[in-house]
Amino acid sequence: MEALIRKSELADLYDKVLAGVRLSREDGLRLYETDDLPLVGYLANLVRERMNGDVAYYVRNQHINYTNVCNKLCKFCSFYVAPKDERGYVLSPEDIQARVLQHIDLPITEIHMVAGINPKLPYQYYLDILNAVREVRPEVHIKAFTMIELAQIQRVAKKPMRDVLLDLKAHGLSSLPGGGAEVFSERVHEDLFWTKADSEQWLAIARTAHEVGLRSNATMLYGHVENREEKVDHLIRLRELQDETGGFLTYIPLSFHPERTELEHLPGPTGSNDLREVAVGRLMLDNFPHIKTFWIMNTIEVSQAALWYGADDIDGTIMEYEITRRTVEETRQVLTRSQLVARIIEAGRNPVERDNLYNVVSTSREIVPDTMGVMS
Ligand code: V47
Questions:
Q1: Atom 5, ligand 1: which residue's CA is nearest?
Q2: Which end of the chain is more exposed for a tag (fewer CB within 10 A), N or C?
Q3: Does the domain made of 53-358 have the CATH classification 3.20.20.70?
Q4: Which of 309, 229, 213 lies closest to 237, judged by CA?
């Protein structure tokens, strides 16, 4: 293997990776351009194993999307409906409690709560829905509100972002998800999501969150109209902010699903694209502790391979994921703990259940047969 790599076009990157030298913008472009995807994966796996050994993290989590009403009209999104559309919904604090109570018997450690930008919701609503979760499930970590939602929450709060974040924290917010970053490019912003906060604002909100002690994730949505330069730029800007704050936990490349969006004519990413994004993310983001392959978007099959291409986290059990469901009816996308553990073991990795902040919850390899759809 060593001899083969020495003869390859990426030999100099191999030396850098072995020596722990940071990869440059030019290196990032070469990782996207090379045909030798297995070698990119091999390099990413060296970093992955150095940072996280053979562990593949997963979490028992529940997703709740509190409203589908959104005034941002992003071309890549199939989830939203415009304000005044009769299909719009808003979950009340009581509805949210009912959703949480549906799964109260399961040892869920994280609730992931995000939604559209609904201009009708007052500041108090956001505090109330955090309280609502905390009342019925006080021990659970609440990961909620993307930087885009936070920009809206600040708008209705009419307070400095720092104070808003401290309020939300006092009401039970424990970390922030990574959504809403899309691709940090003025060109793509103008084309696909021009009404939404741009890269400067996204990064500024993340900085403030990290400063008040809220850890966050970061994403990049790929496979639509972006180009390689824009993706490398995105990764470098995330890396620079991480150098400053150290507040990012996980990077999650998000595989674009064109179905039922304004970009339905696009083919969307392939499995090879998905693996490359995981690998390039691992190699460029040398200061991010974790890289996640989000199995709902990447499929569990590609995610198994991604565990050898730089990913050390596969996300979770996820009940009812609405953002990229294939049809309106199909909202229930679930793998039980046993199914996730079995898939991780089959992929040759060591399953570790984590909480929101990567504290180890369980290292059990027990696989309980799934009876009648009951989670185990
Ligand atoms: O911000 C929207 C993306 C994001 C589509 O932090 C789409 O642990 C694909 O950020 N095809 C929300 N993606 C999801 C997200 C996330 C998911 C899992 C874990 C975490 C985490 C964060 O989904 C949005 C947007 O970038 N998105 N539409 C689509 N058609």
A1: 77
A2: N
A3: yes
A4: 229
Ligand 1 centroid vs 149 CA: distance in angstroms? 13
Domain ranges of the chain: 53-358
Q: What are phi and psi of 19, to 5 degrees?
A: -85, 0
Beta strands at 313-316 and 61-65: parallel, antiparallel or unpaired: unpaired
248 Cα: distance to centroid of ligand 1 (angstroms): 16
CB of 221 within 6 A of ligand 1: the answer is yes
Q: Which residue owns the Cα nearest ligand 1 atom 7?
A: 256
Contact 230, 183 (CB under 8 A): yes
- Whether ligand 1 lies within 6 angstroms of the CB of 219 is answered as yes
Which of the listed residues 75, 249, 254, 302 should we mutate to test ligand 1's pocket, taking the one with most ligand atoms within 8 A of CB?
Answer: 254
Q: Is any atom of ligand 1 closer than 6 Å to the C-beta of 223?
A: no
Sorted by sequence, the CB contacts under 8 Å of residue 371 that are 6+ apart come out as none
pLDDT for 373 equals 47
Structure tokens at 25: 């913008």
Measured CA to CA, the distance from residue 105 to residue 113 in angstroms comes to 19
Average pLDDT per run of 10 along the chain, which is 376 residues long? 90 97 98 98 98 97 95 93 94 98 94 96 98 97 98 98 98 97 96 94 98 98 98 98 98 96 97 98 98 95 98 87 58 79 97 96 86 47
Q: How far is CA 132 from the centre of its chain?
A: 24
Residue 62 tokens read as: 């529940």
Tokens 């030999």 — which residue? 11
The residue type at 313: D
Distance of CA 18 to the CA centre of its chain: 28
d(CA 339, CA 369): 9
pTM: 0.96
Q: What pLDDT is attached to residue 336?
A: 86
**23 Cβ contact list (under 8 Å, min separation 6):** 13, 16, 17, 31, 283, 284, 286
Closest CA to 290 of 199, 214, 219: 219
